[in-house]
Design a protein that fits this description.
alpha+beta; four-stranded antiparallel sheet; 15 strands
């Protein structure tokens, strides 16, 4: 399937969807406390997206996914299913992944949240993963390659003795939740597809405390964990390539990195 370049009108619709995803993440973050269940976080988000935003939670019933958001705790790399039995506890880390559909277009973003007081080694993992995302965003402009993005992430993560998940990656996005291109979080410079204005995709590095290998839960068909059961972290933004660089469509108002860039 070919890469779909978006028109200015389509990017404007994605801008709206991206803002809604960002606002939903900002809304839910204060609810992440010891004792809350991931099922409750899902219900709060579902109500907010459908009732307050007048939007659609994209994960719900997507290829059979049973909930409106993904909640991936500790060793869960991605696609964690919210439940009323998974109660968050002090020291946990959780990735909350929200995708909304508004006027037929998707906005996809995720954040890491510490439950209670951060544990120092997990704080370092979470911060490094976010830094991997930001460094990748910094280089995006027409003419660079997808390999440049992957190499930037891999170099930083491995320099700090973390590993990069390889089985799951970023993706093109627009009217379709997952479209071309695939955006790998590892790779070699100057390889792969060259970026051009009008491309829209996610970058969402998954960085592990231990080894990079993952395991899919065959019972639910969704939950991905690290094989060695050590912690994993992920941050995600939806981006549009412009004539001169990039626009982060899911930038949050509390995200100092973007608010203070010149």
């Amino acid at each position: 399937m070919a890469i779909t370049l978006k028109t200015p009108d389509e990017i404007q619709k994605m801008r709206v969807a991206g803002r809604l995803a960002a606002e939903a993440l900002e809304m839910i973050e204060p609810f992440v406390k010891p004792g809350v269940t991931t099922g409750e976080l899902d219900r709060i988000c579902h109500r907010y997206i459908t009732e307050e935003q007048g939007a659609i939670p994209a994960p719900l019933n997507y290829h059979g996914f049973p909930k409106s958001i993904c909640t991936s705790v500790n060793e869960v790399v991605c696609h964690g299913i919210p439940t009323d039995t998974k109660k968050l506890k002090e020291g946990d880390i959780i990735n909350i992944d929200i995708t909304v559909i508004k006027d037929g277009f998707h906005g996809d973003s995720s954040i890491m949240v510490h439950v209670g007081n951060p544990l120092p080694h997990l704080q370092k993992l979470v911060e490094t993963t976010q830094e991997c995302l930001y460094k990748a965003i910094d280089i995006v402009k027409p003419g660079i390659t997808l390999g440049d993005i992957g190499h930037t992430i891999q170099t930083l993560a491995e320099s700090r003795h973390y590993s990069v998940v390889r089985e799951y990656c970023g993706h093109g996005i627009g009217r379709v939740f997952h479209e071309e291109p695939q955006v790998l979080h590892y790779g070699k410079p100057s390889t792969g597809t060259k970026l051009e204005a009008g491309m829209t995709f996610t970058i969402e590095p998954m960085i592990n405390l231990g080894q990079r290998h993952t395991k899919l839960n065959k019972k639910d068909g969704w939950t991905v964990t690290t094989k060695d059961r050590r912690h994993s972290a992920q941050w995600e933004h939806t981006l549009a390539v412009t004539d001169t660089g990039i626009e982060v469509l899911t930038a949050r108002s509390n995200e100092k990195y973007f608010n203070h860039k010149t």
